[in-house]
Each structure stands twice: as C-alpha cells, then as structure tokens.
Design a protein that fits this description.
By secondary structure, this protein is an alpha/beta fold. The chain has helices at residues 2-8, 29-41, 61-73, 90-103, 121-135, 157-166, 181-191, 205-208, 222-229, 248-259, 264-276, 293-306, and strands spanning 12-15, 47-49, 81-85, 107-111, 141-146, 171-176, 196-199, 212-215. Helix 5 packs parallel to helix 6, helix 9 (222-229) packs across helix 10 and helix 11 crosses helix 12 (293-306). It starts with a helix and ends in a 6-residue tail after the last helix.
Length: 312
Amino acid sequence: MPVIASLQQDIQVWPDLVLPLKDDLSVDTTKFTAHVRNLASKGIQKFVLFGYAGEGASFSTEEKLSVLAVLAQSGFALEDFLLGVNTSVLHEASALISRAHSLGVRQFLVSSPTFYDAVTDTAKIAFYTHLINQVGLPNWQIFIHQLGGSSASDLSSFVVSELLRSHPQHISGVVDQDPRASRCVGFLESFGGKALVTNCHETNLLMLRPPIAVSALANLIPGVVGGILGKGMAEQKTKFAGMKVKSPDERVISLMAVIGNQPLIASIKFLISVHYRQNNWDIVRPPQSGLSDKSREDLAKAFKAFNLLPNE
C-alpha cells in the first residue's frame, strides 16, 4: 500500500487538534484556522480533526462538515486531515465519510462501535465491513481508532487482523489511544509490516518509536514530540554556563507534570490560551470536564515555569 510505505519513510507528527469554542459551544473557526496555520508554519503537514483531543464524539456530522468547509475556504488541503468518525450509526458514519470525501478528505479515523451490551468481535468486524461497503467510493482509507483501557469498544488483535485480511485496500493503520505501551507493542509486532501503528501517549513514544505520532501535546510542542521520534529540533539559541538542555522526552514529562491531574483537553486548551494570549480557549463541550478558577491559576503559574521555547 503506497500510502503506508511513504509514511514509514518519513517521520511525522500529527497533532490531535483541539478546537476553540465560543460561549454557545460552536467552533470558533477564526481562532481554529489561525492555530492550524501556526502549526503548519512549524512544519506540520498532517492533522487529526475531531479525534480524541478534538472532542469528536461531541460534534454532529453537519458541524464537522462545516469546519471542513471553512478549512477548505481558508486554503488548506483537506487531504492533509485525518477526520474522526465517532458514531455507531452506520448510515451516519457512511454519510459523513461520503460527504467529507466529496470535499477532499481521504483518510478517516473510525472508532469501534459501542452499544448497551458488550459488542462481540464478530459484530465489530461486521460494523467496519458494512461501513466500507456502504461508502463504496475509491481512494479512501480507514485508520482504526483503538480506544483501549476500560472502553467497551476495545479492539482485539483478532479484529484488526481480520479487517486487514478482508479489506487491505481500505484499512491503513491503527491509532492506539490505550495508555498501556504493551498493547501497542503487540499491535506493532503483529501488524507493523502491514499497516501503520502508532500510540497517542507521548510518554510511550521513546520506547515505541513509531513512524508517526498522533499527539494532543503537539498542539503546544510539535517540535518536542518530533524530537522524541528522532526528527531533529532546531537548536536552542539562548544558553548560559551550567544550563542543562532537557531532552525531548524530559520536556514531555515536564509538560505532563504541569497538567498534573487536571482534565487533559481543557488543560491543553487553557495553555494554548496563555501561549497565544487569547481568552476563552479552554471552553469544552459536556461531558468533558472543564477547569476551575483555581486550576487555571495553578496551570498558568506552572506553565510560566515550564518556559515554552519558540523551537518547541
């Protein structure tokens, strides 16, 4: 599969984009397009839209298509976006993929279906198979979104193996949201030669060294995340005697310490708000947890000490 081959030859960071919201919880597209443009100026070439960090499960098909239209009107190539598809309703999933495909999107991050009761492996395979058949379009690909952990939509290696065997032209990879590095190691060992496999937890990247990283922290520190993968960072210009320049993985650990036990998505949004000096970036859609005033105060203080550098 040529897309996988080209990705494996080039280390890439794909920011799992957070979206600034207005008070009515609609997307602030002016702030958002400026954020994407800023990341592109730092060398980012591929973006995840409406994924985990983008609160994808909280947005409707029409809202997602509206944001895609704004991005296209702003001059972005939609083939550079991996679009989150987060619904168990087959017709909604196929409609979103078909309509986004007509706008230029070619790759989709598709979560496993959920239901009131546990979903069997056979049913999960049937969901993806019916989806592929319903869409029925050429030149589009699925990245399976493995949510992991205690999620009812956790995918087994058997499911991934069967989907790769049955639909090699459409299944391109696995984006593993599971914090357990051992799970991703299993996927890499089983499918690394057949599909692109990556993990979303930045603290696992140094050990896993995947060819790409889907990263929420890359909204703030794309250069650092790239540095963990082996993609060179620009040298820090300001130095003084005795100064210890931290490695990329140490910087990730430091930023995670800044966030601490605060809600991850709201925290990243707030830190972007501080970095850009723009208000109201940290609004999230329920059921995501927001930040208290005390949390914002603590985050701002810790982020100042973190001292985000231009090359990061």
